[in-house]
Recover the amino acids of this structure.
């Protein structure tokens, strides 16, 4: 009986994962933007930024462009922001960035980790990130 329950849970969790179209969009659009954002962060601010995408929360393709858009905000904003030692120091407090889908577009920061939530076609702005990191 336990074996049947375990197999059923595995099947349910597998079917809950996104389909090919969603996997392709994540692989071809969202993940490259995340890598570019991390690279721009390092070259501009001088520190590593580890980005984690909560794949389990992105089950529909419609939710994924907001994540790519959020990474675009970082790519565009970080170069012009990390121009002095104080800004670089503030930005380097963020060591891990988690991006997931939720019911609102927010950014919260605690203990070195920032969590950005995207919703529908909205994502946190770069200014939302800097406002939290510059406190």
């Amino acid at each position: 009986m336990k074996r049947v329950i375990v197999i059923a849970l595995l099947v349910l969790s597998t079917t809950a994962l996104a389909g090919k179209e969603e996997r392709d969009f994540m692989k071809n659009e969202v993940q490259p933007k995340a890598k570019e954002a991390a690279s721009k962060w390092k070259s501009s601010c001088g520190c590593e930024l580890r980005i984690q995408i909560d794949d389990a929360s992105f089950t529909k393709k419609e939710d994924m462009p907001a994540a790519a858009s959020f990474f675009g905000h970082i790519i565009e904003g970080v170069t012009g922001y990390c121009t002095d030692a104080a800004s670089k120091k503030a930005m380097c407090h963020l060591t891990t960035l988690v991006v997931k889908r939720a019911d609102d577009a927010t950014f919260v920061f605690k203990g070195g980790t920032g969590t950005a939530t995207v919703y529908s076609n909205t994502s946190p702005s770069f200014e939302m990130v800097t406002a939290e990191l510059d406190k």
